[in-house]
Specification:
It is built from eight helices and ten strands. The protein is of the alpha/beta class. An eight-stranded mixed beta sheet has the order 2-5-4-3-6-7-10-8, with helices on both faces. The radius of gyration is 17 Å and the shape is globular.
Length: about 270
């Protein structure tokens, strides 16, 4: 696919667990009820931004139907989408240009994008309204909460994580989304034959992801980066593997950064 603009990925990729940019406050803080937008230890960065007037209007028209805040309530995807279809989750959908393109290319699938950064979601909401995309729904909050509380085991056709924040400093590695516990959680939500598709432009994070994936017994590698078939990667996967080249990825190419793609299947 052609390169597309993804402004949310300009600085730090998709930003991992919440798929967005708000982080937990560090240091002492007054006691309060935990907020889904400021969860425990997160893998996403703090960013602020206001909606434009037109974004706000589109949000008010569309969000009650296509968007929800993350909660502990199990998700009834069939009721939300109004049909029964294979379900894909994208963790860190940013402004959603890749999300929208993939949803339009795969109308037979339902896709839920998870993101924290509201202005990024607002751009996607506008596109969904403008182009009449019916197979996308959005969750705002921490993706780990979504997987733990809202998604049933063995229910997903696929999980996509494109350019999560690499947190390059050693002291921040604990914030990386793709840790052993999270990989196990993702695998448990995939149905048999379901796909985990990950991409990163950070060499150090790629090594980490490869090691974590190799250690997850529920997953089998389907491409060269995961120890699978280099000639026919994911030849019979249940979801499509072609993704748009975002503005962020184009910038990485120009900088000489290698893109590492990981494809695993659920055993």
């Amino acid at each position: 696919m052609d390169a597309v603009n993804d402004a949310a990925n300009d600085t730090a990729g998709s930003d991992g667990a919440g798929g967005g940019s708000l982080r937990n406050h560090e240091g002492p803080a007054p006691e309060r009820e935990p907020s889904r937008l400021y969860p425990r230890v997160t893998s996403f960065r703090s960013r602020r931004g206001a909606l434009t007037a037109t974004q706000q209007q589109s949000w008010e028209r569309m969000w009650p139907r296509i968007g929800r805040e993350v909660s502990d309530e199990p998700l009834d995807a069939a009721a939300w989408f109004g049909r029964t279809a294979p379900l894909i989750i994208e963790i860190g959908c940013g402004t959603g240009t890749a999300t929208a393109a993939m949803a339009q290319a795969e109308p037979q699938f339902d896709l839920i994008g998870i993101e924290v950064y509201k202005p990024g979601l607002a751009q996607l909401v506008q596109r969904i309204e403008r182009e009449g995309i019916e197979n996308i729904r959005l969750l705002r909050g921490d993706a780990v909460d979504v997987l733990e509380h809202m998604i049933a085991k063995d229910s997903l056709a696929g999980v996509r994580v494109f350019f999560p924040d690499p947190w390059p400093k050693a002291r921040h590695h604990k914030r990386r989304l793709l840790q052993p516990a999270t990989m196990t959680l993702i695998a448990s939500r995939l149905q048999r034959g379901g796909i985990l598709h990950v991409a990163t432009d950070h060499a150090g994070y790629a090594e980490h992801i490869a090691a974590v994936g190799a250690g997850e017994p529920q997953l089998v590698g389907l491409n060269e980066a995961t120890g699978g078939d280099a000639e026919h990667p994911g030849a019979e996967t249940v979801i499509g593997l072609e993704r748009p080249v975002t503005k962020f990825e184009s910038k990485a190419h120009r900088a000489g950064s290698a893109i590492t793609e990981f494809i695993w299947g659920k055993i």
